[in-house]
UniProtKB/TrEMBL annotation:
Organism this protein belongs to: Spumella elongata
Residue ranges of the TM segments: 29-49, 69-90, 102-120, 126-146
Alphabetic keyword roster: Membrane, Transmembrane, Transmembrane helix
Protein name: EamA domain-containing protein
Length: 171
């Protein structure tokens, strides 16, 4: 578990930093183009991992598509993953990478709770686990509220109605 988490972190952090750099440096590039670029960038490691680990992948793939509910689940997974990636790039373009990670982690709490409810997972039985989840969620919510409060309100120049009927521009 620790090795897998370390590898994941060592891959995700540089990937997100490069993504953020590309998004901030190329505001005129359309997001679908950036999605294609990400797909091309990640195709090589994905194909390598697949080749090393799944000698019988294509036979399994054909067998999976013979079962209708697995086919439906795979297609829904592809659509949902693509939509998530597309929306991730839009959010990263508009906010900081830290804000995105906080929002993403807060959204994952919904997935954890769904796992607990749907599969009767006993994750919440321990008081330390429950405390950790509450502290982490509270930290995410407080970060989101504080970062929202720091953003300046947009300045809108509206005419102000004076007592005698004349108008003036507000400062």
């Amino acid at each position: 578990g620790i090795v897998a988490a370390t590898v994941l972190i060592s891959v995700v952090i540089p990937y997100r930093l490069v993504q953020r750099f590309a998004l901030s440096g190329s505001r005129d590039l359309p997001v679908p183009f950036l999605c294609v670029f990400d797909g091309a960038l990640l195709a090589a490691p994905s194909a390598t991992i697949m080749e090393l680990n799944l000698d019988t992948f294509w036979a399994m793939w054909a067998a999976w598509f013979q079962i209708p509910y697995i086919t439906a689940a795979l297609l829904m997974s592809i659509v949902c993953f693509s939509a998530l990636h597309f929306s991730t790039l839009y959010v990263l373009r508009e906010t900081s990478a830290t804000s995105f990670q906080v929002y993403y982690n807060m959204a994952n709490f919904v997935l954890v709770l769904l796992g607990v409810v749907l599969y009767n997972d006993r994750v919440l039985d321990g008081p330390l686990v429950m405390g950790g989840i509450i502290v982490s969620l509270a930290g995410g919510v407080s970060y989101a509220m504080c970062s929202e409060a720091e953003e300046p309100a947009p300045k809108i120049d509206l005419p102000v109605k004076l007592m005698d009927g004349a108008t003036a521009q507000a400062d």
